[in-house]
Design goal:
single chain, 282 residues, mainly alpha, two-stranded antiparallel ribbon
Amino acid sequence: MSSTLHKRRDFIERSILSALAFLKEATLSEEYANRKGFLQSLDPRFKTISFLAFLVTAVSLKSAALIGTLYGFCLILAFFSNIPIRNFLLRTLLFIPLFSLCIVLPTLFSIVTPGEPVWSFRVLGINGIITRPGMDGAILFVVRIATSVSLVVLLSLTTQHSELLKVLRLFGVPQVFVLTVSMCYRYLYLFATMVENIFTAVKSRVGVVSHQRHGQNVVAWNIANTWNRTTQMSEEIYMAMLSRGYTGEPRLLSKFYAMPKDWIWLLCAVIICAGLFYRGHT
């Protein structure tokens, strides 16, 4: 019995620490953005415009094969940008596309989408029929979601956070939205680090929590303490930013310079999108 409880505690501890480590790496890691690669060398303005065109194309196309072609091109860009394909696939296919697949599962059956039957089965006395229109619609939906998520993730991985915020302001995105995104982005990392430190401190001081009531008291105290610390920290950071002349505009020491390869890349992106639109309407 004690061995089972020990294994359960170890599993919970590893899960918490792994989730926090993944959150910190996924939100604030600029390792890939600082690497020497194809997308990293492009001007952030041109890169953002081209990826926005790719995203609109992926959402507008009604052919899963054409969207899959765009997804393959996204993987090629990730490869030439020195991004490990395995890590990229784990980032893009593990959560949202799988969740979208669960959402679209009911549309496979004839009750929701009538049409030509592809496969029929019987489970617990219930007949199930998967139709061709339902399967085609589900494949199109999942491929579109996977491609859109991959494009957004690839843009964020190959562009520094500060540069991306500056590009959003140059494109006319409201200052309040940019400021909110910037603060939330930074606070995610601080929050993850704070929770990790609190977990380590509780484990070193309290040790093993053997009673449910004791564990509830520890969790409640830490929630209240984290809330108080984050509120105080937000006020101090805001006052420090105002004292240093912060007005809500992201400022960078480096400036954007358009090179010939940026214009060539933008032209290639327009040609690719136009070609996919043409193939999709013929």
